[in-house]
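Customer ticket, subject: "Can you confirm the structure for ABC transporter permease?"

Message body: Hello, I'm evaluating your service for our small team and ran a test protein. I'd like someone to confirm that this is what the system normally returns, since I don't have a reference to compare against.
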Amino acid sequence: MGDAFGLAFDLVLSGDADLIEIVLLSLRVSLTATALACLIGLPIGALVATGRFAGRNAVLIVMNALMGLPPVVVGLLVYLHLSRSGPLGFLGLLYTPTAMIIAQTILIAPIVAALSRQVLEDLHSEYAEQFRSFCLTKLQTVQALLWDARYSLLTVGLAGFGRAVAEVGAVIIVGGNIDHLTRVMTTAIALETSKGDLALALALGLILLVIALGVNAAVQSVRMTAARQAYV
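Agent reply: Thanks for trying us out. I re-ran your input and got the following:
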């Protein structure tokens, strides 16, 4: 165990090429998926937060339920659509980073939508009378809410990124864990552990742990910034 940790630290400190490649691909896939999920989830969350329509409670139930989507089920559905016999097979996206981005986006978009809806709904209830007195349109109301809640929504985005970068089930199904193509940190850890290469698995685990701690530190920093801004 001690030797494995020593080799792991050596890999990290020496900047091993394979290690860096895996980490950079993981970050590219997860950051892209997070950005897409925010582009999809934030408007949905804002519309549901400010809207009053028939069936709204059912929509809320579905949104909250989708936060717990099983990753392997999402991976399977994406696989079926992108496989050669699927409706999108002609695109040739299966076993590519793009397929992994699609799977991660589907997984975290409901999380972004549900969390942002709660944040924006609480804010909307606080400012509803003021918005009505200004005779703001629906679009202006949504824009005002998104801007005022920007720090909280950044926290939502960071939470989505943390969920994406730790994902393994869906990405291994649609990505295939192909060396130098679709191998990310989580799938590489699973593979290298099964092969007995604990040094590389531990090195990737250490980096993933640092990223997780960094995300949590960023969330805490954003919350503190938001609290300070509230009293400015």
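A couple of notes from the result: The mean pLDDT is 86. The CA atoms of residues 84 and 210 lie 38 Å apart. Feel free to reply with more questions.
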